[in-house]
Amino acid sequence: MKKYVLTGGPSSGKTSLLEELGRRGFYAIREAAKDFIIQKQQEGIKEPRLKKDFQEKILDIQLKREAEIPPDKEVVFIDRGLPDGLAFYMHRKQKPLQRLLESIAKCEYEKIFFLEPLHLYEGTGFRTESEEESQNISNLLKRLYEDFGYEVVMVPPVSIKERAEFVLKRI
Fold first, then answer.
1. Which DSSP helix (H) or strand (E) runs through 54?
2. Is the pLDDT reported for residue 73 higher than 90?
3. Do 81 and 112 meet the contact criterion of CB atoms below 8 Å apart?
4. pTM, whole model, 2 decimals?
5. Is CATH 3.40.50.300 the classification given to domain 2-168?
6. In this structure, are residues 72 and 94 in contact, taking their beta carbons and an 8 Å threshold?
7. CB under 8 Å to 96, separation ≥6 — which residues?
């Protein structure tokens, strides 16, 4: 099984690309934080990311999703890998969970596809970072994956279909 991570700053098109790859028949794992935030907001919790255990909950969801990948899947695309969680800890100047660091040390991703910003930054109910914060997170993510020794492939800001073709030619 080969796991490929789609990463990049907020509003870089990861979810749209993941959905396109899913439509093309590939196994796709959605972003844990986004799903969790939307669920909690539907339950009436306006800012779930401010809860003390937010990052721990995201880690639990991410680990569960990766553990539940059917063994017959040869290619898997993941919207944000485990090092993304570390980048958000660093961005917020928080001490990361030891369990996150241990999980990162054990994870094995084939390649990292880093989506360059689309230059249409848009805040949403679950995305609260400013455009400047988004750029800082983007820089952190790229550096972290490189520091962990992963091959980082820059995905240009073109249409979703062109991005999908770009990624598929490189797996």
1. helix 54-67
2. yes
3. yes
4. 0.88
5. yes
6. no
7. 55, 85, 86, 89, 90
